[in-house]
């Protein structure tokens, strides 16, 4: 580890190695990760069971706990809060906190921007600005005032997790390990367009729930909406999921952005059910959230949604219409752009 880095984003072995390099007992590593990740301290001065000379060296080497990350906070009237972060590398990225009573969810980003280029998504329209390191990913949870109340994480913000899998997998290890944040694996959901290489690695030992962005069951139409379909065909994604089923209690879901006049026909509903046959899954239908970068699309009408879900029922699908939060502060699903763009 280099001077100016932070311990946030480091695993237990890395923290113990840092202690060893400086001649300190490595058994303090488990205490440090406990204070940083489980107790989610904001300042090293809050630590009361580690010698002060070690804490002084810690602060001299790394600054304060979140010295590498700053944020602006934008609360919405629907109870959501958008956070616009800037890290030491100058990258801008977002997360959104959503309070639904018992469920208090944080949606986090894995990249600044995104290179997947999905046509209906604001993040895709700004292009790729770089991968986030594990510290910047985990830091979105640890730095905010609501940190200790969060009991659900969704990795569905800016970026494609499997396009930054090394850092995302390290972040997930920190989030789910007993020495780390200690989140239950079934309380975290990772969303992907279905990058085959990353998906295969994920399925060998799933660290959390999985959500696949579907949006159309027809390859040509899906490729028009999501260019990633060309190199990562949804048919191959489905075959991989059939070969390596998600083990319980983890869950598999499919995200389906409802685009008025495009992907809500009876043929779409039937084809979706045929495509997903044999998979234990749930479909999350997300009415498209308007933004200026994709004016060719429109929100679905209530009649379109009613008809589409009725057809899904006829073919035996399990589905939910998911109402996005954070629309007025520009942080709803598909609206994140690494800047404050309120409605």
Describe the protein's architecture and organization:
This protein is α/β, with parallel strands linked by helices. The chain has 2 domains: about 10-60, DNA polymerase, domain 1 (Orthogonal Bundle); about 70-330, TIM Barrel (Alpha-Beta Barrel), CATH 3.20.20.70. Helix content is about 30%, strand content about 20%. It contains 11 helices and 12 strands. It has a 10-stranded mixed sheet. A two-stranded antiparallel sheet has the order 5-6. Helix 5 packs parallel to helix 6 and helix 10 packs across helix 11 (about 300-315). It is elongated, with a radius of gyration of 21 Å.
Class inferred from helices and paired strands: alpha/beta
Q: What's the level 1 CATH class of the largest domain?
A: Alpha Beta
Q: How many strands in all? A: 12
Cross-sheet strand order for the largest sheet:
1-2-3-4-7-8-9-10-11-12
Helical proportion? 25-40%
Number of helices: 11
The total domain count is 2
CATH architecture of the largest domain: Alpha-Beta Barrel
Percent strand: 15-25%
User: What overall form do the CA principal axes indicate?
Assistant: elongated
CATH topology of the largest domain: TIM Barrel
Helix and strand element order:
HHHEEEEEHEHEHEHEHHEHEHE
């Amino acid at each position: 580890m280099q001077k100016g880095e932070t311990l946030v984003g480091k695993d237990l072995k890395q923290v113990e190695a840092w202690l060893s390099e400086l001649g300190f007992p490595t058994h303090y590593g488990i205490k440090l990760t406990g204070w940083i990740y489980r107790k989610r301290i904001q300042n090293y001065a809050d630590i009361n069971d580690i010698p002060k000379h070690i804490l002084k060296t810690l602060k001299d080497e790394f600054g304060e706990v979140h010295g590498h990350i700053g944020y602006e906070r934008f609360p919405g009237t629907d109870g959501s809060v958008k956070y616009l972060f800037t890290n030491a590398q100058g990258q801008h990225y977002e997360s959104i906190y959503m309070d639904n009573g018992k469920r208090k969810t944080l949606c986090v980003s894995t990249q600044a921007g995104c290179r997947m280029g999905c046509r209906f998504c604001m993040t895709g329209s700004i292009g790729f600005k770089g991968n986030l390191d594990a510290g910047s990913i985990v830091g979105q949870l640890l730095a905010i005032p609501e940190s200790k109340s969060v009991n659900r994480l969704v990795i569905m913000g800016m970026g494609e997790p499997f396009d930054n899998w090394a850092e995302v997998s390290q972040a997930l290890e920190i989030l789910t390990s007993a020495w780390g944040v200690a989140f239950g694996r079934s309380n975290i959901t990772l969303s992907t367009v279905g990058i085959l290489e990353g998906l295969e690695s994920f399925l060998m030992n799933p660290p959390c729930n999985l959500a696949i962005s579907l949006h159309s069951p027809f390859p040509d139409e899906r490729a028009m909406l999501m260019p990633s379909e060309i190199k990562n065909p949804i048919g191959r994604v489905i075959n991989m999921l059939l070969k390596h089923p998600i083990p319980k209690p983890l869950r598999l879901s499919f995200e389906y952005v409802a685009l008025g006049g495009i992907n809500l026909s009876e043929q779409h509903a039937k084809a979706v059910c045929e495509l997903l046959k044999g998979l234990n899954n749930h479909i999350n239908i997300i009415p498209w959230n308007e933004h200026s970068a994709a004016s060719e699309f429109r929100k679905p009408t209530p009649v379109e949604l009613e008809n589409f879900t009725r057809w899904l029922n006829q073919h035996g699908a399990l589905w939910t219409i998911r109402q996005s939060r954070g629309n007025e502060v520009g942080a709803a699903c598909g609206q994140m752009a690494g800047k404050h763009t309120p409605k």
